[in-house]
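Much of our argument rests on the idea that a fold can be written as discrete symbols. Part of our work consisted of pairing the sequence of a single chain with a tokenised description of its backbone. We regard such an encoding as a compact summary of how the chain folds. The amino acid sequence and the backbone structure tokens for this protein are reproduced below.
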Amino acid sequence: MPLYPRRTAKPAEPDAPMSLGALLVQVRAALTHRFPDSYWVVAEVAEMTRPRQQGGHCYLTLTEPAAGAEALGFTAQARATLWGSRYQQIAPAFAEATGQELRPGLRLLLRVKVTFHEQYGFSLDVLALDPSYTVGELARQRLATLRQLKEKDLLERQQRLALPLGPQRLAVVSSPTAAGLQDFVHQLEEAPYDFAVTLFPAVMQGESAPASIQAALDQVRPRRGQFDVVVLIRGGGSKTDLLAFDEYGLAAAVASFPLPVLTGIGHERDEAVVDLVAHRSLKTPTAVAAFLVERLARLEALILELAERVADRSREHLGRHHQRLQRLADHTHEAARQQLARAQNELAYRSRQATQAPRQQLRQLGQHLNTFRYTLPQAGRQALRHEEQRLRRRSRTVLRRFVRHHQRKREALLRQQFSLQLGLAKKVKGYELRVISLEAAALRQENRLLRQRLTANPLYRSANS
């Protein structure tokens, strides 16, 4: 142990209390000394207050979201300011380079300077923005959206739907005041086809556009049986106005819609995600109308071509049948002519047979009369009278039979002739009349001959005297 013990130290007197202002001055000095330069910082815009007047300042709330897909909240937050003169330079340049204006939700690469004010606290002065980082971030988000749609089999689902051959019942999702809608309707009205257009109003630009368009699609869904296609159109606009069509929720709603969706968003260069998932993407509303009109024109041309083919086939078919009917008609005419000739020959033969039998009987009676003329005058006269009566009866009977037979044959022939060919009826009738007249003349001639023979017979003269 030391010979002399140490002296007990006197307790240090506490420092005099500082004012809040003095403390914050020291904090500002420390921050200025520690962070003298500006720094590039990656942050996300959580909130944003735009200038309310020309030359006003823009106030931002920058955050760093918590890592992990399931994390909530953020790990850091700071206020930032874009002073009026700098805002007038940075904001237009950023919008031109990225195609969109500054807005909450964007992830930015900012050049900031750390500032501290005793009254307003900690803040960051924004000196510059790197638009290339935001463009890359938007592209990354676009690729992530497309990847997510592909994973859920939504990227090509619309392509599997069959587009009607002639879509005419159109459910149009657009803003009622959009110039593109007026161009679309005007183009359809000039077409020679009738279209039924039903408008489902929606906001087509801005932050509320995706939800508004989805609401319009939800109105179409329960009435989908009334429409052939859905047409999503809007007029031209800046790149910023088209960002709503890259939103995943809207793209998924379009991809999963049960009707084919045609888009005419009105941009000539870029394709939005909605264009990629739609059944058919066209550049402008007028192009959509022209596509619909052209599709109906092609369908009409196809129908006319098919109708012409059917007409040609029908004409060929009718021609073949006409030739066949003509051959059958010629064959029928020839068969009728031959059958008529055979009937006429048979009628002539029957007529000859009918007149030959009475002649033969008359000759036999004459012979009998000559035999008994000298030996049996009285018997001859009686026999003559008897034979004359019998001959008359037989003649009448034969004549009646001949007439009936001839009448039946004639009627049969007339019926057959009438059924075969009406045009030959007059000629056949003439032939029949000539045959009857000839037969009557033959009978009259035979009767005259018979009377002459009887008159020449002395037995007949003596009997009459």
In short: The first helix runs from residue 20 to 34.
